[in-house]
Amino acid sequence: MAWPSMVLFLIVFIGIVYLMICVGYFVFHRFFILFPSRKLAETPSDFHLQYEEVFFKTSDNVRLQGWFIHGKPSEECEGMTFILFPGNKGTMADFLMQISHLVKAGFHVFLFGYRGFGKSDRKRPTERGVFHDSEAACEYLLRERNIALKSIVFFGQSLGCAMASFTASRFDPRGLILEGGFPSLVEVAARAVKWLPLRLLTTSRFETQKYLADVRCPVLIVHSRDDKAIPFSDAENLFRAVSGLKKKIVISGPHAKGLENDKDRYLNEVRQFLCSV
What we know:
Blueprint: H1 3-28, E1 35-36, E2 50-57, E3 63-70, E4 81-85, E5 89-90, H2 96-104, E6 108-112, H3 127-143, E7 152-157, H4 160-170, E8 175-179, H5 185-192, H6 198-201, H7 208-212, E9 219-224, H8 232-241, E10 246-251, H9 258-261, H10 263-275
Parallel strand pairs: 1-5, 4-6, 4-7, 7-8, 8-9, 9-10
Antiparallel strand pairs: 2-3, 3-6
């Protein structure tokens, strides 16, 4: 094979491989965002917490599992209930250590599992699906437990910040707390792989920053400067996206583990934030 022909062959071959990678990412990336686990290694009773196991349905008829964990409300907490919107992996059991600090501080906490997680229906979780799940969790508290929106606080962690912000844009809770969040999954993907046009190819977008533009309630942004997974600059971008009442606190420690690493300061900041809104 002549040298020019070999060069042309290599260019065409590389181009075909590149195109195949792009098509493969476009088709399959949505399967590698959420990682369901069925294993519930612990329950709230292992942390000496009083709770009820509940099940409820989404608007698209998926049955979800939840734990309503009872706090002992103090005068300053006023019987407030947190909904935790988890990130992309693990089960409710993985958040019990963090949640126990909220409960012992006097807050009620509602933990729920997205579709495919824990005892929730074995449905493949998708972006649209987990947004349905998030709305259903709020509807459960409103309709089945008769809890007023002004007593509900949305608490999102990591990817769950997108679910919490999306749901807050459709409801009007007392407050929205986002820890370890990022503007969108597109930004995270594009940062990680710069040699692919991922801004065009990523269809599961989880656009927290976009949803925040429609959020009316007060917003607390929490981020660690030690976070190796999501840079602190992402928290600053989210903070700028909030047009209403907002506050930002800087913590230390690994990604989305603030309640485990600095619980006293964290809880103090949360109390001050909620008492001011």
